[in-house]
Amino acid sequence: MIDEQQGVIIAGFGHFGSTVGRFLRANGVKATILDNDSDRVDLLRKMGFKVFYGDATRVDLLESAGAGRARLLISAIDDPERNMELADVVKKHFPQLKIFMRAKNRYDAYELIDKGLSHIYRESLHSSVYLGVDVLHELGHRKYTATRKAMDFIRYDQEALEKLSRERHEKDRYILSVKNEIELQERLLSEDQLFADLRSDTAWDGERRKED
Amino acid sequence: MIDEQQGVIIAGFGHFGSTVGRFLRANGVKATILDNDSDRVDLLRKMGFKVFYGDATRVDLLESAGAGRARLLISAIDDPERNMELADVVKKHFPQLKIFMRAKNRYDAYELIDKGLSHIYRESLHSSVYLGVDVLHELGHRKYTATRKAMDFIRYDQEALEKLSRERHEKDRYILSVKNEIELQERLLSEDQLFADLRSDTAWDGERRKED
């Protein structure tokens, strides 16, 4: 059994990182924390957390925090650029560490996929979909069914993200204009329609029939 | 059966709002959209959405978009201050509209609770907890159990939010210093411990035995 306290590092303990840390702690996993807010660091130490103060992208700080023997690192720095830098540093110096990555949005996520990362969490994806679940419930849909559809939608959206990320290399990857964003929305919406069609019972039966 | 196309308004179609809109559309609900990005508005119209271009906090625009007879409004503007303004305008001019509110973080959420709003979605809450689910899974926990714990944690965190929001009025509400944030983290972490204890089987059995 791995020493979970040593096994998990959280870099950045703002709103995002602290929620992850609290959820893990409520489930018996005490992560080692890296944070550059000195007041917060003092408090967290008093509360029994193992905390290292400073810039999480510094190799020596990561080393002291046990990055060389840890199992996974949660990269949750508030500033997307510094968070991205951390991913680079960790991949280079601690290649054995599995990285769980906070991403600002879809474009951040594309860059992270380009870097070869796979555990990517766009920070507002789940909340926006769960707002949608409550709206469907308000409109009379069953909560259970809407929740299942939310999980399917998120899984599907993550697959679409990887597909679209690969495709964008076929075009000029340095142009990220409003036009591109619009094309993307267009693509996503058409794909969603496909998704909705595939989910409908009729389409599903058609699929089954073909297989038979 | 309500005409769902008329019944739902989404204000702001950036990353957050467009994900809600796509999820709803994939489930057969076509919302009316308010957005101030003219290129995006053109595209959305082409794709068959009912879209109004302009500042969503303008009463006349809301009126044209059907706010007077709609059922619910999703307030998803990227700028937290303008999103907050929209809540005020809607509460004043369209009191029958149920508001589903995007919030930046815990402090935004407190302000929204003060305004009497109840459907509040902190934009990174769900994603950070679901990152935690995958971490627990990576450490050997069952995915199903971790997901249930995530749902419990989010429900519990929302209840704690309302409780802490009321309590903060007992102190000077205008001081939002680092010290306060630290006290808050301290409170949250102790409450989480309580939550973890309550969930553990032993504590639960103890509770049961007392009842017997």
Would you spell out the secondary-structure blueprint of this structure?
The structure is a homodimer of 212-residue chains.
Chain A: H1 4-7, E1 8-11, H2 15-26, E2 32-35, H3 38-46, E3 50-53, H4 59-64, E4 72-75, H5 80-93, E5 98-103, H6 106-114, E6 119-122, H7 125-138, H8 143-167, H9 178-199, H10 201-211
Parallel strand pairs in A: 1-2, 1-4, 2-3, 4-5, 5-6
Question: How would you portray this structure in words?
Answer:
The structure is a homodimer of 212-residue chains. Chain A is globular, with a radius of gyration of 20 Å. In chain A, helix 7 runs antiparallel to helix 8 (143-167). The longest helix of chain A has 25 residues, at 143-167. Chain A has 212 residues and is an alpha/beta fold. Chain A is built from ten helices and six strands. Chain A has helices at 4-7, 15-26, 38-46, 59-64, 80-93, 106-114, 125-138, 143-167, 178-199, 201-211, and strands at residues 8-11, 32-35, 50-53, 72-75, 98-103, 119-122. Chain A starts with a helix and ends with a helix. At the A-B interface, helix 2, helix 3, strand 5, strand 6 and helix 7 of A face helix 2, helix 3, strand 5, strand 6 and helix 7 of B.
The structure class of chain A reads alpha/beta
Most strands sheet of chain A: 6 strands, parallel
Order of helices and strands of chain A: HEHEHEHEHEHEHHHH
- Bin the helical content of chain A: 55-70%
Low-confidence stretches of chain A: 173-178, 201-212
Largest interface: A-B, 70 and 70 residues
Our estimate of the beta-strand percent of chain A is 5-15%
> Please, what is the average pLDDT of chain A?
84
Distance between the termini of chain A: 46 Å
Radius of gyration of chain A: 20 Å
Oligomer: homodimer
Tally of individual helices of chain A: 10
Q: Within the largest sheet of chain A, what's the order of strands?
A: 3-2-1-4-5-6
Shape of chain A: globular
| Total E-strand runs of chain A | 6
